[in-house]
Specification:
The complex is a heterodimer of chains A (111) and B (118). Helix content of chain A is 0%, strand content 52%. Chain A has 111 residues and is mostly beta strands. In chain A, 38% of the residues are buried. The model of chain A has no long low-confidence stretch (mean pLDDT 97). Helices cover 0% and strands 48% of the residues of chain B. The chains are: A mainly beta (111), B mainly beta (118).
């Protein structure tokens, strides 16, 4: 199985400051359809919500403060200016190889 | 508006069975791949199974293969997960999600809790 490794596992950020989460896959994620790496946010007590798909495509309604980048086996989610609403656990997920696998999650809190 | 509503979660004894349902609305269900993803209490997300639009392709994580069966009723816009030989480690909130984009899922339902305990 493809192992997805996120870092850091927790992040304490000052409001208005940037934040960055890394996700590394144990195998390359390129497929005919594209590089199938997604990012999700699970706010406390809520279901997960996708923010980014195919490395860098933002979902409808996701603020442009969120951006995804990367290639090969190294990927990054960046928040340009953290807001209170961004608190929760962020997960990366690969959908290139069966079984689909998630990272361990990165808990983001406000300092 | 796209909606996914799971039901069927319950307390069940080890070795027991349960069938989860997911009612879909607001999109072309019969043309959509669908997924089940679970989350054990206080833990991360684990993809469980996928089914393609005509139910001819099904994929499972190794830990449930042979015990769980994903299926669908396109006439009723329903997704199912039949779970047999349940184990304590299957305790989790189970989410159904639409796999509209390749290799990804969105949106997700609100989840249904399955507790396996004696």
């Amino acid at each position: 199985d493809v192992v997805m490794t996120q870092s850091p596992l927790s992040l304490s950020v000052t409001l208005g400051q940037p934040a960055s989460i890394s996700c590394r896959s144990s195998q390359g994620l390129v497929k005919t359809e594209g590089t199938l790496l997604s990012w999700f946010l699970q706010r406390p007590g809520q279901s997960p919500r996708r923010l980014i798909y195919e490395v860098s495509q933002r979902d409808s309604g996701v603020p442009d403060r969120f951006s995804g980048s990367g290639s090969g086996t190294d990927f990054t989610l960046k928040i340009s200016r953290v807001e209170a609403d961004d608190v929760g656990v962020y997960y990366c997920m690969q959908g290139t190889h069966w079984p689909w696998t998630f990272g361990q999650g990165t808990k983001v809190e406000i300092k | 508006e796209v909606q996914l509503v799971e039901s069927g979660g319950d307390l069940v004894q080890p070795g027991g069975s349960l069938r989860l349902s997911c009612a879909a609305s607001g999109f072309a269900f019969s043309h959509s791949w669908m997924s089940w993803v679970r989350q054990a209490p206080g833990k991360g997300l684990e993809w469980v199974a996928n089914i393609n639009d005509d139910a001819k392709e099904k994929y499972y994580v190794d830990s449930v293969r042979g015990r769980f069966t994903i299926s669908r009723d396109n006439a009723k816009n329903l997704l199912y997960l039949q779970m047999n030989s349940l184990r304590v480690e299957d305790t989790a909130v189970f989410y159904c999600a639409r796999a509209a984009t390749p290799g990804s899922v969105q949106p997700w339902g609100q989840g249904t809790l399955v507790t396996v305990s004696s």
